[in-house]
Write a structure and sequence with these properties.
8-stranded parallel β-barrel; 219 residues; binds SN-glycerol-3-phosphate; alpha/beta; 11 helices; 16% strand
Length: 219
């Protein structure tokens, strides 16, 4: 399973990049706005840290505008993928951008039917938002299982990115469902590393060994 970091914050990307487990980055307009920089500057900076797919979202809502923006953003670096919010215009733009060799990530996916249409239009990635489904009383990761099954049934190449990840259980359930990628915020990546029994174990090993050393020095 590939792990992307869901952020536009360079410090977070730098820190996590040093762990050696990050395969790519996803951004969205809210995350870019939080950094106070324009999208192209953000993307340029990110490409200097991560050598893998980096998703950047367009702001247009019509196919023509999406394609124009997509072409512009893709010029920043060959690793840049174009994120389009799911709608009819996005399907049209997905088809055209894909034919031009520009990879598309269809985002704001909330049903398997939307994912199926995006895959048929040629999307390289679909991003189902699991946390936002939980917010409205659904079990978000069930959507990942459904899309995984549909894509396997028909051998679609489109990769599924579990997005709107809010806790480590989302990552676990996405992985169990066979999801290709989870895009995970920095805070959740930190939570995934830790376990209280690991911390307790490290402390005990250190103290046992240091006590033995002290005993040998004293003797
Ligand atoms: O990957 C999409 C993500 O950035 C949205 O997350 O927590 O705002 O639903 P959230």
């Amino acid at each position: 399973m590939k792990i992307f970091i869901d952020t536009a914050n360079l410090d977070e990307i730098r820190k996590v990049s040093s762990w050696g487990i990050i395969d790519g980055v996803t951004t969205n307009p809210s995350l870019i706005a939080r950094e106070g920089k324009d999208v192209k500057t953000c993307l340029r900076d990110i490409t200097k840290i991560i050598d893998g797919p980096i998703s950047a979202e367009v702001m247009s809502l019509d196919a023509e505008g999406m394609i124009k923006e997509g072409i512009e953003l893709s010029k920043v670096h060959s690793n840049v993928n174009i994120k389009l919010p799911m709608c009819v215009e996005a399907l049209k733009a997905t088809k055209k951008l894909t034919l031009m060799g520009i990879k598309v990530n269809v985002t704001l996916i909330f049903s398997a039917q939307q994912a199926l249409l995006a895959a048929k239009a040629g999307a390289s990635f679909v991003s189902p938002f699991v946390g936002r489904l939980d917010d409205i009383g659904e079990h978000g990761t069930n959507l990942i299982s459904n899309i995984t099954q549909i894509f396997a049934n028909y051998s679609f190449d489109t990769e599924i990115i579990a997005a709107s990840v809010r806790n480590p259980i989302h990552v676990l359930e996405a992985a169990l469902a066979g999801c290709d990628i989870a895009t995970v915020p920095y805070k959740i990546l930190q939570q995934m590393v830790s376990h209280p029994k690991t911390d307790e174990g490290i402390k005990k090993f250190m103290s046992d060994y240091n006590n033995l050393k002290k005993h040998n020095t004293d003797a």
